[in-house]
Amino acid sequence: MAAAPLAAHPKGAFVIHVEPKSRGIAPRDAEERLAEAVGLTAAIGMTVIWSAIAPLARAVPATLIGSGKALEIAAESKARHPEIVIVNAQLSPVQQRNLETQWGAKVLDRTALILEIFGERAATREGRLQVELAHLTWQRSRLVRSWTHLERQRGGFGFLGGPGETQIESDRRLIGERIVKIKQELEGVRRTRDLGRKARRKVPFPLIALVGYTNAGKSTLFNRLTEAKVLAKDLLFATLDPTMRGLKLPQGKAILSDTVGFIADLPTELVAAFRATLEEVLAADLIVHVRDAAHDESEAQKGDVLKVLAELGVGEDRPIIEVLNKIDLLPPAARQGLLDGNRRGEGAVAVSALTGDGLPALLARLQAKLTSDNIAVSLTLEASDGAGLAWVYRHAQVTGRRERAGKIALSLTIPPQEAARLESRFPGKVKRSQKDGVGG
User: Fold this and answer.
1) Residue 27 DSSP code
2) Cα radius of gyration rounded to whole Å, the chain
3) Under 8 Å CB-to-CB from 242, ≥6 apart: which residues?
4) Domain identity same for 61 and 106
5) Run of H or E residues at 53
6) Can you point out the beta strands (E) in 110-174?
7) Which residues of the chain have pLDDT under 50?
8) CA–CA separation, 15 vs 49, rounded Å?
9) In terms of DSSP bridges, do strands 320-325 and 349-350 run parallel, antiparallel, or are they unpaired?
10) pLDDT recorded at residue 307
């Protein structure tokens, strides 16, 4: 496929998407994958001055891509002098070095590019630690015998106690020591998060985690629902550090968590490194999967997200609500059809985080999903028991209240895990409904 010049800029980046030829499986659209790689490159502030798709019938050990396409890119590089060439594929150290020699420019593969973005975006100490861990894990895997200084020996002459460490052994040891230190620090972060989760459980607000493909509009939706001011830009990986805010539901409250976006072929090092952050997803009472309804690759992106969730240990039995975001970008008829589906309560919930369309339906769906297992009970308190009444309002959902003769009769719904606490707090006063219905 012909290459496409993207900008007349004297310095910048080339982006090469490597597209394996189909083997009976419908491939994702190569142009879309190239556009995503261009977006990732823009996310680190590089101007893309030329891009191309490199079809791959068979991987070449020395350079991955075929010699013809490699020579074509070399000619373009000689003419345009890019500062960097992004190869949207996984390169071995040998392949990277050979391509840099042939093209006369620095070469980064997909994993290195994503690590670079994460390194620039991580704002908190935890985020920076996780990115460093991912980078060191990736770097250690690339300490192979392609290095030019491996024969340099240190620590002895070779006849007393052996030749000493080679440079590669020393580097691997130093990296390993740093990885151990970072993991210890992140374990402290994990323990702190566990304490935070236990503290939140004392106030029984359910946790809702937003997940989705990067740039699906999670942060914009988060801001709209919670009136927060999380960075929300039309940019891949705009959010790295998790954020939590209170969410007001039609009846009651919840805690909403915004998480890092997923992406196709997310490096395994990043999945492992960000496990501490993504534990919020594992702990969530409800997962909201936000999709970009206007994106041509929306279905394929859904598969990528579900794959990462599975890697994290989120099973198919977990409660998940699917949200089709960005319906404001759809044709009017398609947008109206999805909103009509909201009213019927069918399938995914269609919204526009930008305009607010569909948000009441989403809040109602969240409410229904979170309370679907709630137990209906009744409780009568003395009107003078202000502390008990306050406790009930904090820990249960009050669906009815009647006051008579110095007593307050309450109709409640409460999550099953909280029912025992309610009965312990008010022994002999809690009566369960004949059928444990769905709470308001």
Assistant:
1) P
2) 27
3) 257, 258, 259, 260, 277, 280
4) yes
5) strand 48-56
6) 153-154, 165-166
7) 1-2, 4-10, 24-26, 145-164, 238, 435-440
8) 8
9) parallel
10) 87
The predicted structure's pLDDT at residue 354: 93
Residue 18 tokens read as 């490597």
Together in a domain, 198 and 347: no
Instruction: Report in angstroms the alpha-carbon separations of 14 from 1, 28, 107.
Output: 16, 21, 9
100 neighbors 92 (Cβ within 8 angstroms): no
157 inside domain = no
> Do 220 and 356 share a domain, yes or no?
yes
What is the count of structural domains for the chain? 4
DSSP string, 89-122: S---HHHHHHHHHHHTSEEEEHHHHHHHHHHHH-
What are the E-state strand segments in 223-292?
Answer: 243-248, 253-258, 286-292
DSSP assignments along 353-370, one per residue: TTT-TTHHHHHHHHHHHH
Q: What is the residue type of 400?
A: G
Question: What pLDDT is attached to residue 158?
Answer: 36
Six token digits for residue 418: 């909280």
Residues 178 and 264 in one domain: no
Q: Which of 370, 189, 371 is nearest to 280 (CA)?
A: 189
Q: How far apart are CA 182 and CA 388, in angstroms?
A: 46
Residue found by looking up tokens 């993991």 in the block:
183
DSSP letter at 28?
P
Which of 319, 338, 371 terminates a domain? The answer is 371
Q: What are phi and psi of 136, to 5 degrees?
A: -65, -40
Which tokens hold the place of 312? 């994290």
212: buried, middle or exposed (CB in 10 Å: 19+, 13-18, 0-12)?
Answer: buried
What is the token pair recorded at 81? 């002098």
- Residue 342 belongs to some domain of the structure: yes
Residue 307's CB is within 10 A of a number of other CB atoms, namely 14
Domain that holds residue 326: 205-371
Pairwise CA distance, residues 147 & 46, whole Å: 28
406: domain CATH number is 3.30.70.240
**pLDDT value, residue 202:** 61
Where b means 16+ CB within 10 Å and e means fewer, 340-363 reads ebbeeeeebbbbbbbeebbbebbb
pLDDT at 148: 39
In a domain, 158, yes or no: no
Cβ-based burial of 288 (10 A; exposed 0-12, middle 13-18, buried ≥19)? buried
Please provide residue 218's backbone torsions phi and psi, each rounded to the nearest 5 degrees: -60, -45
Whether 46 maps to a domain, the answer reads yes
Residue 229, Cβ density class (10 Å: 0-12 exposed, 13-18 middle, ≥19 buried): exposed
